[in-house]
Amino acid sequence: MKDESTHVMPWRIEDIDLTRVERQRAATNEDLLLLLCAASFIESGTDLYTSNLSKFFNDDPEVSSWLNHEWEPEEMQHGRALKTYINYVWPEFDWDTAFANFFDEYSKTCDVEGFEKTRALEMVARCVVETGTATLYRAINECSDEPVLKEITDNIRTDEVRHYKHFFKYFKKYNKIEGNGRLAVLGALMRRVMEIKNEDSEIALRHVFAIRYPERKDDFAYNRNLSARVNSLVRRNLSADLCVKMLLKPLDLPARIQPGIHYPLAKITQHVFFR
Ligand SMILES: [Fe+2]
Ligand SMILES: [Fe+2]
Hints:
- It is a single chain.
- The protein is mainly alpha-helical and 275 residues long.
- The chain has one domain: Ribonucleotide Reductase, subunit A.
- Helices cover 73% and strands 0% of the residues.
- It has 11 helices and no strands.
- The longest helix is centred in the middle third of the chain and has 32 residues.
């Protein structure tokens, strides 16, 4: 893990008073906690991805320094904050074991070959990921009625939107050099959108279920249904509007085209993200 001391964090989980958590209220929403757990695994696995990503940008001090000193510590804190919250509400849940199992599988899916062919296009892909997380935490925030979780997810969402803005700025910086056209940008965008669901969250949820419901570990149908139920929680609370607006930005479409494709894209997004 990288040193977090050089960067002043915009907020700190240590400053949030967990004794304010309404445990009973939080624990009744089991599906939401399963989802939070899966999110905490993916966030906590970020440092693996960053070392690859900063290698990809190693001769650009502006980008690699931001990745190492701001982006990564903030993402790691997202994982830690959610873990802290889960431990408080589900003290019996063995987060460390579940995460270790997840990480073992997940780490094999992250490699440099998974990157886009150019730096600008990789930045487009990163914008998609931040769009996904910003949308996810907004949805979680919306379906929770527990005040501390609302506060934490609001902080996280704000971070994700700021990350998006950085990646977008770096996309523009590199695309000035690379000059990728809209079709190339759209390609990178779609490739990453398609990837979002089928890998990371599927692996994470599976490892959450295995520790939470060990007796159902090998019950494939049960786990599939549970996954669908957890994902539908997000889909029902998804702000497709915000999501599409963020996704479309790197395409820099003329204003007159945008309203026409906005609605169909919002519908597609709803189906693709969190199926
Ligand atoms: Fe995050
Ligand atoms: Fe982020």
